[in-house]
Amino acid sequence: MTLALVCLAGAGGRVTAQEVSAGVRGGVTIPAGSYGDSASSLGTGWSVGLVGRADFDSSHFSVQLDAGYSANSIEGPPYGTVSDWQAGLGLVYRVLPASANLRPYVLLGGGVDYWQDNSGNGLTPALYGSAGFDLRLDPIMPYAEIQYRNVLTPGSNLKTIQLIFGLRYVVLAP
After folding, report:
1. pTM value?
2. Are 141 and 170 within 8 A, CB to CB?
3. Looking at the predicted structure, is the pLDDT value of residue 10 above 70?
4. Which domains does the chain have, with CATH numbers?
């Protein structure tokens, strides 16, 4: 993931990467509605993942790669678990300059998810939006984020809200 970010950052022509960071994340996955064709609902679950970000010089924009896994239990017939492997690319807008210590941001992204439940599995598109902040403590950056995910599964879409907590480490600095 870090290598992909370094290549992406170097391909920008006049726009050069100010820094590249990589890290881990985890958190709580909260259902945002019913799931599937049944009246079953999902219970609160969990998520883990990897994240990489390339921040661009003289800009409030960044590019972020995410990969992760989340799981929620099905609370009703047919009982079981909904598993969701995720990979995505997002555009980040930092409200304050990159040099600020506390940096609020918003993120819009999309990707692919491989979901699996009692009735089947599939590879499908997903869209997501986030709001969060990171705290610059060179070379580490703890962050917190709330993310709305819409995984375009057959029937009713899998919609969740993820409360994410993570830690990124600067692997390439100017």
Report:
1. 0.84
2. yes
3. no
4. 2-8+22-172 (2.40.160.20)
